[in-house]
Amino acid sequence: AHADRVRAELALALDAERRQTAGVNTSAQPLHVGAFMTKNPCTVDAGLSVADAQQRMAQNKIRHLLVVTADRLVGVVSNRDLALAAALGGETKTTVEAAMRPSVYVCDASTPLAAVAYDMEANRYGCAVVLEDGRAVGIFTTVDALRALRQVVTGAPAEAIAPPTHEQAPPAPDKLKEYRVRLGEQLFRAHAMPSSHQGTFRP
Hints:
This protein has 203 residues and is α/β, with parallel strands linked by helices. The longest helix has 20 residues, at 2-21. Strand 5 (106-108), helix 5 and strand 6 (127-132) form a beta-alpha-beta unit. It has 7 helices and 7 strands; from the N terminus they run H-E-E-H-E-E-H-H-E-H-E-E-H-H. 27% of the residues are buried. The strands form 2 sheets. A 4-stranded mixed β-sheet has the order 1-7-6-5.
């Protein structure tokens, strides 16, 4: 969209001005989200149970799943979305469709990283889905953003420390239990702290 393009160009211009003022070389090409996205994002069918989706997250060491119906992207679900749905409706009775967020923040691989980071920070998005010809080819999460930060700070290419495993076999029961315990602790800490505004995804 034209507004998105203008916003991205403005963000780049402001970033270049700040860097030039600080004496940083601005001749290098700007970073794009495609360089740091996680390729081949894990998907889940909208009709799958919350328990099965949690299991898929645990075995792949991820916090977001793309929700599809007949190979069409219909939403995104996070580990917190699943935990809340499980607490309210039961993890075996509730489907992913009931837990997911139906609108998704999307971009393409050539979108400047600064523009995506700006939108994610401003709206509290947990991820951006990267599309190519209408097909999801990647996902950029806050974990990927930290990898981009490592590269900027060190000046050296930063490889993913814990990439998704894309395992198909169910995880061992103790691993799944460990995942749920850790998630429960995270949610407990979150509820113990003052609540913050949670942004919603937009088409």
